[in-house]
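User: Could you check the structure of this?
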Amino acid sequence: MSQPRHTADTITDDALDHLYRQLATLHRRTEDDADTIRHWQGRAETAEVRAEKAEAAIDRVRTALARLCDDVPHPGHDHLCPDDIQRAIEDALDEQPAT
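Assistant: Sure, the predicted structure tokens are below.
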């Protein structure tokens, strides 16, 4: 059952105190929620920066490997072929995470 709506003429001191307590509680919750939102926004921004750095690192690795294979002649040698290294790393970088 809903409580009657108070007016300035009908509200009691106890009812007014109760409303102020409710208002204070809601204000604290709002501040807590704002703090939580700021925290997670900061975390999201940090994650975005880290992702951009990781993507840039991957691009640098690909560039370095491509340069390695372009600069080193390797037919008929007896060591690990840079093309094989490039292929293996690129395959690993291109793998999709298991879902």
